[in-house]
Amino acid sequence: MRFSSSLKNCNTLPHAKFIKELEKNFIPHSAFQKTLLGVGSAVVALFDPYRADMISCMGEVTGGKALNYMRQKMLETNEGAEILRDMPRINSQIVCFKTLSQMPQNTLGRVYADFMVENKITADSRLPVHFIDDPDMAYVIQRYREVHDLVHATLFMKTNMLGEVTIKWIEGIQTKLPMCIGGGIWGAARLKPKHRQLYLKQYLPWAIKTGNDAKFMQGIYFEKRWNQDISDFHREMNITRLTGT
C-alpha cells in the first residue's frame, strides 16, 4: 500500500495527520471484492438513496478515473492547488459554527451555518475513506464529501429529493463521479409528480447550465471565503441563482 509515499512533503502536519487517519480506517480488499462492493453498493443505493454508507462506498470503488480528473482540475487553479497542499478539513472541531452563525446575514459563512441548522445537519456526519489507499485520491473524495453541504448551501438547494437530485447533476457534470451521474439519473425517477414537473421545467435545465458554466466547486477554498457576500460569490463563480429558491 502507498500510505507513506504517495504525497509530496508527506511529513508535513496536514499530510501526516491525514495519512494516519487513512491507515486507521482503510479496509483491505481484493480486486474481486472491489467489484462486488461496487455492484452491491450501487444496487442498495438505488433502492435506498439515503444510505450514506453505500453511496460513500460506491463513490470510492467506482471513482478512480473521476478522482484523478478532479485532482487535475484542482491543480489548474491557485486556490485548488492550495487546498491540496493545506488539506483542510470541515468538521465541528475545526469550523466554529457558532462564529459563522453570528456573521452578517448575506455572508457565505452565515448562509452555510443557517443551512446546517435549518436542515439539522452536522458537519461530523461525513464518513471517512475506507477503500482507497492512495492519500492523494483519498483526500479528493474526502474533500468532496465535506464540501457537499456547502455546495447545497451556496446554491440554495434544499436536502429533499428534488434538491439532492439537482445537486447530483451539478456534481456529476463537474466531477464525473459515477455515483453522482447515477444519482442524478436514477434519483429523478423517485420524484413525486409535482416535483418531477418542477425538475423537468426548471431544476434540470438550471443544473445542467450551472454544472457547465460555474467554476469547479471542488476547487473553491470555502474556508477562506466565510466573509464574502454570497451575491459576490455567485458573480465570481459564474453562478446564477435558481429563481424561487
In short:
The protein is an all-alpha fold. The chain is 62% helix and 0% strand. The chain starts with 12 loop residues before the first helix and ends in a 9-residue tail after the last helix.
Explain how this protein is built.
- The protein has 245 residues and is an all-alpha fold.
- The chain is built from 12 helices and no strands.
- It has helices spanning 13-25, 31-47, 52-62, 64-75, 78-86, 97-101, 108-118, 135-154, 161-175, 178-188, 193-213, 230-236.
- Mean pLDDT is 89; it is low at 3-11.
Number of strands: 0
Reported for the largest beta sheet, the result is: none
Average pLDDT level: 89
Radius of gyration: 18 Å
Order of helices and strands: HHHHHHHHHHHH
Decide which structural class fits the backbone. mainly alpha
- Shape descriptor reads globular
Spans of 5+ residues with little confidence (pLDDT < 50)? 3-11
Distance between the termini: 46 Å
Q: Bin the helical content.
A: 55-70%
**Percentage of residues in strands:** under 5%
Number of helical stretches of at least 4 residues:
12
